[in-house]
Amino acid sequence: MPRLFNSTVPLVQLAGLFLCVPCHQAHAANWTVNPYMQFRETYSDNLRLARPGNESAGFVTEANPSLSIFRRSGKNTLNLNYRLQNLYNASGNEGATTFNQLQFSSRNALIPNKFFLNANSSISQQNIDNTRIANDNISGSGNRTNVNTFSLSPSWTPQFGNYASGLAVVNYDTVTTDTIANSGRAGISDTQNFGEQIQLNSGTEFKRVGWNLSFNNRDNYRANGNDVSFQNSNATLRTYINKHVNVFAQGGFSDNSFQSFSGGNNNGFFYTAGAQWTPSRRYSLEAGYGNNSHVTLNLSPMQRLTWVTTFRDKQIGLNSGQTWQTALNYRARRSNWSLTHLNDTTTVQALLLKERVIIVDGNPDPFIDQPVEILAFFPTQTDQVIVTKTWNFAVSFFTGKSTLTGSAFSQDRIYQLNDGHEKVTGLNGSWNWQFAHKTSAYLTPRWQQIDRGLPVKDNRYDLGIGLIHSLTNRLNGSLEFRHLNQTSAFSTNNFEENRATASLFLRF
Fold first, then answer.
1. For the chain, how far is it from start to end, CA to CA, in angstroms?
2. Which of 2, 4, 317, 500 is most buried per CB count within 10 Å?
């Protein structure tokens, strides 16, 4: 299986790369190149995240050279962020370990407004499962694996005069994992994904009739596990009675293939017929009846508030049965609010392809003295198809010197191969306070609970408090104290850790 990047890049290659980069910000032909260096010293009273009575304390030394490359022009965008994390005595092993962390994305307009080529790649470390959650690569052992992803996607947007507009997309993705430390086994199957998406929409020549044709296909070919295929074809015809009322008919075919405990792939032909009422641009109501029925209410009573809610009763296709979803967004002068409820049928490989390891999008300081944390909310690494129902609430407040954010989430997971159930609930918060011109403080409390139907639920508490000071325009220093506590249904996964970290972050 091809890999764009090797997760074991030798140190000598990175050293050569940095020697070729000038030690200042470079601007040429819309290119921005920023090299960074981070030094950290961490003291932990439980480096192996051992259960009570078996703790061992120690220091972990960290030196992380990093590189950010960004380019934007009228036709192309490129964003690459790379960090080489070098640790001494991580997990108390009294040796040196190296981790690569990469986020790369590019978008190229080969023919303006017609033909595009997108590419993405990442290297990260992820948990094997959520029974033993490490905070990052510093503590814990034997519960993580390297994950490499690569995606290439050409797309074409043809125009057929005023009669129709189209979209054709082809996707090729790979997800590969290294063998898990101290186990000799892989986290999930290496996977190659092939996908096609075709859409054709009616143009302005059709005054009172609108139509849409779509075809979506995605095939997952796995090195060791069972292959998975999702396919859906759909056609919609909509006729406008007047500016407030239209009627529609929809039909299609769903053809999905994956192993399921209940055998409920629910393939076949589906149909829906109904009407939509739009009394104003701020309100609309749509209802459709058939073997796939739905009701959708769209509200926007004010410019800052949008709320869309859909109830479905499906007999055919993914996420069948009675489900509903909602998305509410409200923007105030100093705050943003959102509430969502979603249903999805997915795989761990698909989630890893979407995950962004390092925040990119042109951020001038993409590594701002923050560790790359292993995902705690992520599902157990498995080759099964997962049906999820997810609630998420998020709010953020902005004042002159402070930024406060909070979120609450709940996700029900049903693993299709063994009918395993898992419910994850959590709360996250952060407060950043810039109380002086060059100094800011932050507080990050977190809580997560995993319910696997066992007598005892897994609970994780994580509290961080820190101070960041700009020593010069290119040098930041920070101090952090963090407390981590996990109580588990498995006694071997109970642990508590306190750590103190001092770090310097240098931008060349």
1. 37
2. 317
